[in-house]
Amino acid sequence: MSTPRPTFRWLFPATTIGLLVYIVAPQLILVSLSVSERFDLVGGVLPEGFTLEQFIRWNGEIGEAMKVSLLVALPTVALALVFGVPAAYALARGQFRGRGIVLELVNLPMIFPPIVLGFGLYQLFRSGALPTIPPLAMLVLAHTVVATPFMIRPLLVGLQRLDPAIEEAALSLGASRLTGFLYVALPLLLPSLLAGIALTFARSISDFEITFLLAGGDFATLPVKVYHAFETGSSRLGAAVAVAGNVFAVIVIVALETIVRKAKWW
């Protein structure tokens, strides 16, 4: 007698395939639009002919947008590491009054709409409350505010799962707390660290609202370039910039993760 199959056995494969299609379909349409000879796509999906005109004609502007995005995103990741690692450690290991409030405050940049944060940062940097700083430095500082929580959260989860006895053992052998963290705890947190780097870089390089409000006229990052292309009615150029930006972001994230994996600081 055969065992009856669960009626919901098809549910997980179906939802997984549906999710993948939902994620991949917009990217495929962008690729089709970027290489199409005409604006109209066959059936709304397939390109009408094939051409790399948009990539060849505008390679200089696309490359410049990539360069600007990198000049903002990489320092943002570095600052997020500098501030995020100690903050995550303090929140995970420290016991102090108001810890829950601090944790919620750290989460605020992830909760607030980007346009709200952008307007607040615009007022902060443009109102004269702070000394005048170059636009690039202003963008890096603003991106650090919104991206650092994406570094803290994975590290916080990793630290909460890491047994403190491992660090205590290093201390008992004469290591300082900093040495124990760097050479014992941090290598075990490598997956969390890689996740934080990837999320922080992705948050910075994909930001539009804050970048546009603070320095839209001075620095055209990839999202700002996409906006300008669509605003001027050049949908194929916008699609080409978006495709190039997506490929560029994936390559940089993989490169960063590879560098961190091979950096044997321990």
Overview of this structure, please?
- This protein has twelve helices and no strands.
- It has 266 residues and is mainly alpha-helical.
- The longest helix has 35 residues, at 59-93.
- The protein folds into two domains: 1-51, no CATH class; 58-262, MetI-like (MetI-like fold, Orthogonal Bundle), CATH 1.10.3720.10.
- Helix 1 (11-35) crosses helix 12, helix 6 (135-161) runs antiparallel to helix 9 (190-205) and helix 9 (190-205) packs antiparallel against helix 12 (235-262).
Describe this structure in a few short sentences:
The protein is mainly α and 266 residues long. The chain has helices at residues 11-35, 53-57, 59-93, 99-111, 114-126, 135-161, 164-172, 177-188, 190-205, 209-215, 222-231, 235-262. The mean pLDDT is 83.
